[in-house]
Amino acid sequence: QVRLVESGGGLVQPGGSLRLSCDGSAIPFTATDMRWHRQVPGKQRELVAAISERGQTNYAEAVKGRFTISRDNVQKTVYLQMTGLKPEDTAVYYCSIGVRAGREPIGTHWGQGIQVTVSS
Residue 14 — very low, low, confident or very high, per pLDDT cuts 50/70/90? Predict the structure, then answer.
């Protein structure tokens, strides 16, 4: 199991921006869906944004128009550009990358989680 490496989190004031990165370059297979999730204590992990192998994106209603997910297929890296951040965006953010061998899906790799705190 390859552990993905996340970076870019931290403390930001309301209205500010952050860009999260998730490095999956150590994955020895083809990356399929790439996703960002988030979790706050006491709540279930929720899907924030996803991007398919072909580049189709979808977003949770709470972040539409503020967050943008993108990917680099060569580096197997996924990004999350977050703008207009709100205190309710405070959470631990996790990335996940699905993989396939040929046409066969074989699993999903996860990051260790990175803290994003939005506070004045």
Answer: very high
